[in-house]
Amino acid sequence: MAVLTITQNNFEEEVVKSDKPVLLDFWAEWCGPCRMLSPIVDQVAEELAEVKVGKINVDQEPELASRFQVMSIPTLVVMKEGKEVNRSLGAIPKAAVMELCK
User: Fold this and answer.
1) Deepest in the core among 5, 25, 70, 90, taking most CB within 10 A?
2) Does the annotation mark 101 as catalytic?
3) Are strands 83-89 and 75-80 parallel, antiparallel or unpaired?
4) Could you read off the pLDDT of 70-89 as tens digits, one per residue?
């Protein structure tokens, strides 16, 4: 499944109302570890059809970053039924991202 760009405008529909778990990647263009993690998140999106994957640019969506109390990036958050169920800070290997989504 393709990676979605999550914004304030589509957050409710794509994340809160999702019938699938959602992996959110909080990132920024200037963040080196974010650039390392990004292709891994893309691979997970392709391999886990049962998980919706979205990326949130913290510079463009500061309200969402604040709502999730994101203090450092990259931050990965897994949502199920509109609630946060898992979180990881920093760049992590693909196996750890896959495990986070379970």
Assistant:
1) 25
2) no
3) antiparallel
4) 999 999 999 999 999 999 99
